[in-house]
Design goal:
The complex is a heterodimer of chains A (about 280) and B (about 260). With about 280 residues, chain A is of the alpha/beta class. Chain A is about 35% helix and about 25% strand. Chain A is built from eleven helices and ten strands. In chain A, the strands form two sheets. A six-stranded mixed sheet of chain A has the order 6-7-8-3-9-10, sandwiched between helices. A four-stranded antiparallel sheet of chain A has the order 2-1-4-5. In chain B, strand 1 and strand 2 form a beta hairpin. Classes of the chains: A alpha/beta (about 280), B mainly alpha (about 260).
Chain lengths: ~280, ~260
């Protein structure tokens, strides 16, 4: 069942001369993980803003086409109502801290307070979110005292707790070190295992290959490819993306005749093991 | 790192409803500005603010901060007003062409002690009030939610800005910029600090606004609260009395000012 539907979406920011998105159409099935990849400036973040309704409600410009989330047309639905349908997590963990709360638990509860959720239910939902994202041990600490990875998990928990059917994650590990990246990605794995519909923009293709069931490739605002991760990521260099270390190693191995020339490039450790028959 | 002025000391003052503390602070400030007695502000500071600080288990912090704030101010105000107060007659001390006058010193004393009252009452509130409680109280008092958020987040983001300024200073020191030493050196170091600090803050504003929207900040639903504020009939009555007292004192001050013309 399609939970997110994008039809002929184009968008040009106010005062921009070229469109940031060009005639994009795709659908996302409920409970799946979809990755959106593309070089810098390809339009990934803009597409994320459109999926979450920030376009046209926050960013002004010329929008054509439709975005429907859980049957709500993002153009017709106020942003304050859309947040219960689609949650957006941003790149910078620090900027997602409200600044009005002293502890991690209170910070997670902030969105629920705004939605008017009764305190008993709020307590239950906050506890569940803290546990899912491994934040229960730091529940009483200041959000500002957390590491980057913890702060981004806090941002994820703060959106997850509002129970939107779709979560859009805009390069959630872009500003994190490898340890923070692993922490956040493992949290996303846990989310996916719960059946959460996730759309995430990401540069780190190894994680894309591990997490996504489908990949969309954006190039200069246009959707240029859509398909299964292993098939598409094998063509990463066509779109100016850095291929994974496994794909690079396999390419070298192919050139030296160590593996079959027609073998599909591996994108994850498991796929590399399969090729090498380990 | 503590990112707020709030000091969790489990005291009677902390347990008071934030509006009660705000009304008390208002009444003390109004008293300092309306009662025409030279020593009213210092009396308020010593007899009311300091005992309240002791009750709130924050007297060390209140004393330290008010003294740190007031010493440089006291020196400059005393010198300026003491020597240059317009129309002053009673000379206490003559140094060459300059004379230190009693009226100027008295005026400086009033200014400094009033500032002690403002700083002291402000510290009593922010040191003993959880920022979230302050926001709830302000909304309960009829303040717009966005305004309450701005007031509270500004208090909490201030230490964060200090930390960010320090990290910029450290980075610039690492590249050889002198940031310690004479006033001149410090002023020269201020310019390369302020530009990245302000630019960085402005750059963050948009993403912070987006993130607030993502948390239903602009939702029109009736908001609930994670924290529970405790109030009582006695505190409600006290707030009414303090509000009435403050209004009466302001009216009295305006009336006497008109009558004495």
């Amino acid at each position: 069942m399609s939970i997110l539907s994008v039809r002929n979406l184009s968008f040009r920011y106010q005062q921009a001369t070229v469109p940031a998105l060009r005639d994009i159409s795709f659908e996302v099935e409920s409970g799946t993980v979809t990755a959106i990849v593309g070089a810098n400036g390809a339009g990934k973040s803009t597409l994320g803003y459109a999926l979450a309704g920030y376009i046209p409600h926050f960013f002004k410009g010329e929008m054509q086409g439709t975005v429907r989330v859980n049957n709500a047309d993002t153009r017709q639905t106020p942003l304050a109502s859309l947040v219960t349908q689609v949650g957006l997590v941003f790149q910078n963990p620090f900027n997602q801290i409200s600044g009005a709360k002293l502890t991690v638990a209170e910070e997670v509860a902030f969105g629920l307070e705004n939605l008017g959720v009764p305190r008993e239910e709020m307590t239950m939902r906050v506890q569940r979110a803290l546990e899912l994202f491994g934040l229960d041990q730091v529940a009483n600490q200041s959000p500002f005292a957390l590491s980057g990875g913890q702060q981004q998990r806090l941002a994820l928990a703060s959106i997850f707790v509002m129970e939107p059917p779709v979560m859009v994650l805009d390069e959630p590990t872009a500003q994190l070190d490898p340890v923070g990246t692993r922490e956040v990605m493992e949290s996303i794995v846990a989310l996916a295992q719960r059946g959460q519909t996730i759309v995430f923009m990401e540069h780190k293709l190894e994680w894309v290959a591990r997490l996504a069931s489908r990949v969309l490739v954006l190039d200069q605002g246009a959707l240029v490819a859509i398909g299964e991760p292993r098939q598409l990521l094998a063509r990463a260099d066509e779109w100016g993306l850095n291929e994974t270390r496994y794909a690079r190693a396999a390419r070298l191995a192919k050139a030296r005749g160590l593996i079959a020339k027609d073998a599909l490039l591996p994108q994850t450790l498991e796929q590399a093991r399969e090729i090498l028959d380990l | 790192m503590n990112q707020s002025f709030f000091l969790d000391r489990a005291s009677g003052l902390q347990a008071l409803h934030p509006l009660t503390k705000l009304m008390l602070a208002l009444a003390l400030i109004v008293t300092a500005f309306t009662v025409r007695w030279l020593f009213i502000s210092i009396a308020l500071f010593v007899c009311i603010i300091l005992p309240l600080a002791v009750w709130g288990k924050i007297w060390r912090e209140v004393l330290r901060t008010t003294i740190t704030l007031s010493i440089p101010l006291a020196i400059s105000v005393t010198l300026v007003q003491g020597f240059f107060f317009p129309g002053a007659q009673i000379v206490l001390w003559q140094i060459g062409p300059f004379s230190l006058k009693r009226e100027g010193l008295e005026f400086a004393f009033v200014i400094i002690t009033r500032l002690l009252v403002i700083a002291g009452t402000g510290l009593l509130v922010v040191y003993t009030t959880h920022p979230a409680d302050l926001a709830i109280a302000l909304v309960q008092a009829g303040a717009p939610y966005a305004l309450a958020y701005i007031a509270v987040s500004a208090i909490q983001l201030l230490p964060e800005m200090q930390a960010r300024a320090q990290s910029i200073l450290n980075a610039q020191q690492a590249r050889g910029l002198e940031t310690r030493g004479s006033i001149g050196v410090r002023i020269r170091a201020f310019v390369p600090l302020i530009a990245p600090l302000v630019y960085g803050a402005l750059e963050n504003v948009q993403e912070r606004a987006l993130a607030l929207d993502a948390r239903a900040f602009r939702s029109t639903r009736i908001k609930t609260s994670w924290r529970e504020l405790h109030d009582s009939q006695a505190q409600r009555a006290a707030r009414l009395i303090l509000a009435a007292y403050s209004i009466l004192m302001i009216v009295y001050a305006i009336a006497t000012a008109f009558l004495s013309r």
